[in-house]
Amino acid sequence: MNGNDAVAQQAGEVLVGNYRPQPITIVRGEGCHLFDAEGRRYLDLMGGIATAALGHCHPKLTAALEAQAHQLWHVSNLYTTRPQVELAQRIVQHCFAERVFFCNSGAEANEAALKLARRWQRDRGEDRFEIIAFEGGFHGRTLFTLSATGTPAYWQGFEPLVPGIYHARYGDVTGVEALLSEHTAAIIVEPVQGEGGVRPAPRGFLSELRRLADENGCLLIFDEVQTGLGRTGPLFAHQSSDVTPDVMTLAKALGGGIPIGAMCTRERFARALVPGTHASTFGGNPLAAACASAVLDELTQGGVLAHAQQMGEYLGKRLAELAARLGTERVSEARGAGLLRALELPGPAATIVDRCRERGVLVIQAGPNVLRLAPPLVITSEQIDEGVETIESVLTAQ
Ligand SMILES: *Cc1c(COP(=O)(O)O)cnc(C)c1O
Questions:
Q1: What is the distance between the alpha carbons of residues 98 and 131, in angstroms, rounded to a whole number?
Q2: What is the pLDDT of residues 112-133, one digit of tens each?
Q3: Three-class DSSP category at 79
Q4: pLDDT digit string (tens) for 56-100?
Q5: CB 233 within 8 A of CB 226
Q6: What pLDDT does 35 receive?
């Protein structure tokens, strides 16, 4: 039995079987490459699901983490800690937000956002508790965020769900209008649907949602858990439009691979969460916060954001050319933004993922027929060429 299979067998004996891992065990990462238990090298075009923004074991992140590891690990939010404050300062400096709440994951960030919306409405004496979300949207696996998630397969068997949550078709302004009422607390939407197939919001959709939210008196929440931190081009995806949300949630790439989430909002909404209303033991943990500050510094001052924008355009161009070359019987559509890209295929994407891995390139799915690419933002054009050529050879062999 080889090293990969040996670990997989042990995993099957002790782990809950809620995942279906691919048949390799990853033991090491460096930049845009990963290495399995047999020492085989892979080009990483999935970045830990859009999380390893600076690649694997980036020296600046390792240094930030190590420095903090010698200083302070954890004391909880019963005390103020400097790394958390410094990270919040960086976030508010770069977007509309004036206040930040830290947690540990995307689901928790959205949970906080949805709870904030309800609480803020209640504090104003409004009977507003309903949430409008979208088909194909993904917001996490806690019961509230699962209920907001717009794919029934994720909820089945977990009912009853949180009541008062309704789904409109993504891009359907009239559908949202029909769901809005004097009970609506918030609209939650991804600027680009990630898990739901890498679908960018149709032109003008986000600004229509802004208008509807303002007219109705409900909050507008942008779930930027996947799109944030330069993934689609700008530091935050909504910054490529003229629309500003009331709340923005972050996680995935924020810590560059260390678990951390954030719920970012304006001071007037943040006021609803007075002491005792919401909390997280690990939220803003010094190790995670120090690492996330290093991520933001690399993006905004280290030139990574500008590099990612160039590489995003390049990848988009390469995939569009590939789709044109192979035709619709092999690729139905190439779409996405920045370094969050997808090829919609006429058939199942799972076999393509397997064939690519066998040829040394790691890609993932976003739904049954969608091949998703979310490489580290530090990827080079040569690595993009290598990855796209491998994908093309696999699709051509089908
Ligand atoms: C991944 C994701 C989440 C959930 O994040 P977790 O850290 O897995 O809880 C929520 N929203 C979006 C848009 C995501 O892509």
A1: 23
A2: 999 999 999 999 999 999 999 9
A3: coil
A4: 999 999 999 999 999 999 999 999 999 999 999 999 999 999 999
A5: no
A6: 98
Q: Ligand 1 centre and the CA of 325: distance in Å?
A: 34
* Candidates 44, 129, 144, 223; catalytic one: 223
Which segments of the chain belong to CATH 3.40.640.10? 72-300
DSSP-assigned letter for residue 301: T
- Atom 6 of ligand 1 has which residue's CA nearest to it? 106
Q: Is 354 a catalytic residue?
A: no
Torsion-angle region of 283 (φ positive above 0: left; ψ -120 to 50: alpha; else: beta): beta
Give the mean pLDDT of 259-268: 98
What is the CATH topology of the domain spanning 3-58+303-397?
A: Aspartate Aminotransferase, domain 1 (3.90.1150)
Distance CA 21, CA 44 (A): 16
- Per the annotation, the verdict on 138 as an active-site residue is yes
**Residue 144 catalytic?**
no
The total of other beta-carbon atoms located within 10 Å of residue 235's CB is 19
- Strand 99-103: give its sheet, edge to edge: 99-103, 261-265, 247-250, 219-223, 184-189, 130-134, 165-168
Pocket of ligand 1 (CB under 6 A): 105-107, 110, 138-140, 190, 194-195, 223, 225-226, 251-252
The residue whose CB lies within 8 Å of the most ligand 1 atoms, and thus the one to mutate among 49, 138, 280, 365, is 138
Closest by Cα among 218, 211, 210, 212 to 127 = 218
| pTM of the predicted structure, to 2 decimals | 0.98
Task: Please write the tens of the pLDDT for every residue from 318-373.
Answer: 999 999 999 999 999 999 999 999 999 999 999 999 999 999 999 999 999 999 99
| Residue range 72-300 in CATH 3.40.980.10 | no
